[in-house]
Design brief:
transmembrane helix; 12 helices; about 75% helix; ABC_2_transport; Transport permease protein; ABC2_TM_bact-type; mainly alpha
Length: about 250
Amino acid sequence: MSTDAPALSPARTLATAGRVLRQLRHDPRTVALLLIVPVVMITLLRYVFDADAGTFDAIGASLLGIFPLITMFLVTSIATLRERTSGTLERLLAMPLGKGDLIAGYALAFGAVAVAQSLLATAMSVWVLGLDVVGSPWLLLLVALLDALLGTALGLFVSAFANSEFQAVQFMPAVIFPQLLLCGLFTPRDRMHPVLETVSDVLPMSYAVDGMNQVLTHTGITADFYRDVLVVAGSALLVLCLGAATLRRRTT
């Protein structure tokens, strides 16, 4: 019986990331979902509010972070589950490859995709669609990237609890939708019922939206922005650790 490798290895992590990226290169539909769909959705939103550009400015920055989180969650959860159901994961873990190496490799590979995704979506929003941002667009890019990494981490985590791709998709209403409703996109969080406001205070998407709004309304970097970035990054790291701890070799 094989055991997990005792510690994270940069070589094993990079090899895992390279394998995932090679697989993505041969899957144009997944690449389109990751890179093109967020851009299309942002563009569609801009012209939905064609007669009221102010509304697009008010919610566009928030959605610029939410769309990458959702797409990365979906793709990562399904891709990881497919590895397990096909037996690939069990064969990989029979080698000198630990769960931490595997999770870190997946995070690195999808993190590289997240960089490209965030660059495209941010560039389209700010320089093509005219999203009015008071702060630096590069700060928008930073928050969008962290949101995409958080989506990757959540996808890796929930894939351990699904036995089919359909079940993986079903986790979206349980994991993503409550955060979407409570993150402050539809109404300020301080106007919610006190219980819901308290719940929203512990959901990472709330800080993702707050971080985007800080860039939207402030010329400089605020203390709240630092808090939001640290919470989103810390949540992603925590969920990645949980994903490594709960990763199963095979589907029963």
